[in-house]
Write a structure and sequence with these properties.
Order of helices and strands: HHHHHHHHHHHH
Helix content: over 70%
Structural class: mainly alpha
Radius of gyration: 19 Å
Number of strands: 0
Number of helices: 12
Mean pLDDT: 92
Distance between the termini: 23 Å
Length: 338
């Protein structure tokens, strides 16, 4: 494990990654895991842990602007950018889909098999009850790829003021949608279009925050506060069963920027934070297939959670291994780790 963490930290450092963001990625991925585990264990969703997805969107907007906006302006094509993002997501998502595939084929009508097989390549299905029948959370990967493409085609060309108008429009539209049908939209075909203003709000805010701050936030938030905010918000939300639209908008518009500001003030290295960042995307990708497959086999939810951590850790370990000349490398890219 120590070797894996050293390699992961070296990789992050070489790419100019922000260690504080790694820590937030890990917290967000674990928050989604706990939210879903509680839902599967009790049969009813409780609380607001699903909002971690909106944090992922905002983090992605910030990191993509930081990493790619200048390159897009200097000749990197939108198609090349989109293909690179797709290739980075795909390997781990294929593994996640393959975990769920045997159980799905054994319990589903043959008419649904083509949609399941296509979903291995992140092709959505608008004719099944979920966009991705093998892995429900995969909808957010599609949403992020759409946001990435919009970033390359249009958003990078907009002035910050104009982009602010786009974000404001998205905020108003999403608030109206959320007040009527709820905040946690996007995973089902019927709600996917509602998920687009959701992702554009958070992703667009991330771009704006990068342009404003350039890794030097103008608001004073301690790193410790940044790392505590999300567990505290979701913990209270679970206790009082908060899932209203106002609760969601407060998290997106206020809590997420505060967390980013605090994480940007983290100085120095941390094996724990780097390890959390390395684990975040694999954990987000595989936890639903692993836990649902476990439930089909009679494994309790706690066992599925433990298995998810083991599988995600193995994937992260493979990703951290030194690349041999001429060999392929399984790479991560997130929501959870953009």
């Amino acid at each position: 494990m120590g070797r894996f963490l050293r390699l992961a930290r070296y990789s992050r450092a070489m790419q100019g990654r922000l260690i504080g963001f790694d820590g937030l990625r890990g917290i967000a991925a674990f928050s989604v895991l706990l939210f879903h585990a509680q839902t599967w264990a009790t049969g009813a969703a409780r609380g607001n842990g699903y909002l971690a997805v909106d944090f992922f969107f905002m983090l992605s907007g910030y990191v993509m602007a930081r990493t790619y906006e200048a390159r897009l302006g200097e000749g990197l094509s939108t198609s090349a950018f989109a293909r690179a993002r797709y290739r980075r997501f795909l390997p781990v998502m294929v593994i996640a889909g393959l975990i769920a595939l045997p159980g799905f084929l054994a319990t589903s009508d043959m008419a649904a098999w083509p949609a399941a097989l296509a979903s291995l390549l992140l092709v959505p299905s608008f004719f099944t009850w979920r966009l991705y029948p093998l892995n429900g959370p995969a909808w957010s990967i599609l949403a992020e790829l759409i946001a990435n493409t919009a970033h390359g085609l249009l958003l990078r060309r907009l002035s910050t003021r104009t982009l602010g108008h786009v974000v404001l429009f998205s905020a108003v539209l999403f608030a109206v949608i959320a007040s009527r049908v709820g905040v946690d939209v996007g995973a089902q075909p019927a709600s996917f279009l509602f998920g687009l203003p959701r992702v554009m709000l958070s992703y667009g805010m991330g771009i704006i925050l990068w342009r404003w701050w350039r890794d030097r936030p103008t608001i004073m938030v301690s790193p410790l506060a940044a790392f505590v905010l999300m567990p505290l918000y979701f913990g209270i939300g679970t206790m009082v069963d908060a899932h209203g639209w106002i609760d969601g908008m407060v998290f997106i518009l206020l809590v997420c920027p505060l967390m980013l500001a605090g994480a940007l003030r983290w100085r120095g290295g941390s094996r724990l934070l780097v390890g959390g960042g390395a684990l975040s995307f694999p954990l987000y990708a595989v936890h639903a297939p692993v836990c649902m497959t476990g439930l089909m086999l009679g494994v309790p939810v706690a066992g599925g959670v433990a298995a998810s951590l083991v599988v995600a850790g193995l994937i992260a370990w493979v990703q951290a291994r030194p690349r041999r000349p001429g060999s392929a490398k399984l790479r991560s890219a997130p929501v959870a780790a953009s």
